[in-house]
Design a protein that fits this description.
Blueprint lengths: L1 E2 L4 H10 L4 H4 L3 E6 L2 E7 L13 H17 L7 E12 L7 E11 L3 E9 L5 E13 L2
Parallel strand pairs: 1-2
Antiparallel strand pairs: 2-3, 3-5, 4-7, 5-6, 6-7
């Protein structure tokens, strides 16, 4: 994994405190982690296919929200704030039956309380399969 050295400690903290969840269930692997940019991949296997053999749109959305939320979480002080997705949309542009989908999240807006991310998913041939936008709220820890 490629990671911004300034973010390495926060990434380790997130990895150690996070319980197994969606990333593990869907076999999502983070490949690049930088301020304002996150990349990840997810295999297209039976766990993420719908009954007709295609990548389930919900799995694409889960991948998109994962990279956006992680991108926000890595930028904030976890002792004071937490990041949570509050809105996501997705346009599914091309079906995927096999291989791997790759996500690239790019921050569009970094405010004190709201982060907005543009997420593009592509197949192994670099063809865009899904275009998503995710809004993440930055909330105080209670």
């Amino acid at each position: 994994m490629n990671i911004d050295p300034e973010l390495a400690n926060r990434w380790e903290h997130l990895r150690k405190t996070g319980a197994p969840g969606m990333m593990e269930t869907l076999s999502i692997t983070i490949t690049d982690l930088y301020q304002g940019s996150v990349q990840a991949s997810m295999p297209v296997n039976d766990a993420v296919r719908q009954p007709f053999g295609l990548l389930h749109g919900g799995a694409s959305v889960a991948l998109a929200e994962t990279v956006a939320s992680l991108g926000s979480a890595i930028l904030i002080d976890p002792q004071k704030k937490h990041a949570t997705g509050i809105e996501i949309n997705a346009n599914h542009l091309r079906p995927v039956r096999e291989g791997t989908v790759h996500a690239r999240a790019t921050m569009v807006h970094q405010g004190r309380q709201i982060h907005v991310w543009d997420i593009r998913l592509t197949d192994d041939n670099g063809r865009q399969t899904c275009l998503s936008r995710c809004t993440v709220a930055i909330l105080p820890v209670k």
